[in-house]
Inverse folding.
């Protein structure tokens, strides 16, 4: 054992290299994981009508997922450090595919709350594990992949939403839609996760001898930036279809188009995000993205017809596309704590923002309408805009010494 630890101490980034196989499997995981989430978003309006829920009642039901997420992320970072990111990914990915098809079977507001909470528990662990593994593959490799991985995540959301919308056109209900996708994709998802290597953890050269368990401002500032972006993304994801239905009286199938445009724009932006990171200063690129999102939000809120609203959804998607990938890349290299701990905190704040914003907007919409509800997203985006000055390229890294 002592000989093994001595050998591990001598590991550097040049001793281990990630390759095309690692990149293929992590991209596959990022694609298949959100298929069920994407399939759920366009059907929210249907379930709202089925359960006869107003905006406020729907909001309280939707808050179940962020509660499950927060419960999970209290332990997920420690589990990733203790048992490894890959085992955590395998177990939580299977749990997510089992839990999500039950969401549309809810018969009441609190039934919906419970099923979403269970989905949130597994989703949080999956998100943390696959982001930690993607960061290690990127650092042990010869190219940037983080934004591209999240591009595949967005593509998965888009694909799930497209399939679910097609099912809606065919009169297939939400439960049958999600169950079909889960049964078809669970084996490919687990195969991709099994193919990943558990690369050694990484720390910065600036890491202290006795790392702190508390995040400092350099970490928390990045989390605030990412949290504002994620809050806006969650608002668009959950309320896009409802917004087009309530404001422009769109049919269920047409209402799904707003979300699909938003998801496609996010995917497009993320697939080009690594190219932007290679050519532009991180802070300036982040500011450009946030300003684009603010312009799109203004178009969306003041839209007089569905076409202008769709353009707004597209610009918001482009603006939000690279926020989370940038945050993961920056925070994982901040000194003082392990990358899993930093990514865990970032994921907790980002996913909480992603999942808490829809119910909060619903509460505002109950009193002032959805236009005003979505307009409140500008507050979060302005916070992100201020925090962009805290984004700096991470220092050089070495493999974690144990």
């Amino acid at each position: 054992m002592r000989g093994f630890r001595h050998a591990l101490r001598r590991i550097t980034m040049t001793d281990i290299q990630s390759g095309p196989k690692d990149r293929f499997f992590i991209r596959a995981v990022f694609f298949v994981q959100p298929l069920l989430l994407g399939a759920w978003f366009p059907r929210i309006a249907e379930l709202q009508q089925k359960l006869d829920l107003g905006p406020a009642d729907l909001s309280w039901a939707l808050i179940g997922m962020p509660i499950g997420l927060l419960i999970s992320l209290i332990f997920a970072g420690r589990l990733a450090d203790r048992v490894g990111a890959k085992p955590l990914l395998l177990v939580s990915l299977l749990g997510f595919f089992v839990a999500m098809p039950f969401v549309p079977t809810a018969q009441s507001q609190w039934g919906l709350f419970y099923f979403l909470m269970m989905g949130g528990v597994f989703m949080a662990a999956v998100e943390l594990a696959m982001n930690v593994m993607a960061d290690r593959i990127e650092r042990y490799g010869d190219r940037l992949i983080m934004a591209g991985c999240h591009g595949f995540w967005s593509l998965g959301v888009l694909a799930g939403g497209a399939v679910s919308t097609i099912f809606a056109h065919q009169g297939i209900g939400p439960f049958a839609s999600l169950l079909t996708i889960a049964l078809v994709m669970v084996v490919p998802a687990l195969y991709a996760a099994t193919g990943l290597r558990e690369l050694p953890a990484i720390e910065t050269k600036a890491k202290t001898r006795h790392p702190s368990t508390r995040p400092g401002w350099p970490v928390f500032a990045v989390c605030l930036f990412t949290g504002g972006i994620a809050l806006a993304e969650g608002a668009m994801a959950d309320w896009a279809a409802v917004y087009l239905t309530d404001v422009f009286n769109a049919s269920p199938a047409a209402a799904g188009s707003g979300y699909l445009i938003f998801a496609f724009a996010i995917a497009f932006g993320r697939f080009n995000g690594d190219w932007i990171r290679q050519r532009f200063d991180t802070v300036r690129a982040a500011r450009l993205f946030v300003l684009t999102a603010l312009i799109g939000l203004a178009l969306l809120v003041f839209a007089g017809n569905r076409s202008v609203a769709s353009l707004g959804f597209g610009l918001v998607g482009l603006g939000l596309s690279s926020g989370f990938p940038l945050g993961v890349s920056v925070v994982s290299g901040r000194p003082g704590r392990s990358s899993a701990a930093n990514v865990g905190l970032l994921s907790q704040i980002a996913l909480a923002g992603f999942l808490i914003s829809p119910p909060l907007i619903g509460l505002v919409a109950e009193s002032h309408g959805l236009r005003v509800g979505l307009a409140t997203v500008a507050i979060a985006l302005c916070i992100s805009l201020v925090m962009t000055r805290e984004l700096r390229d991470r220092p050089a890294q070495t493999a974690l010494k144990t």
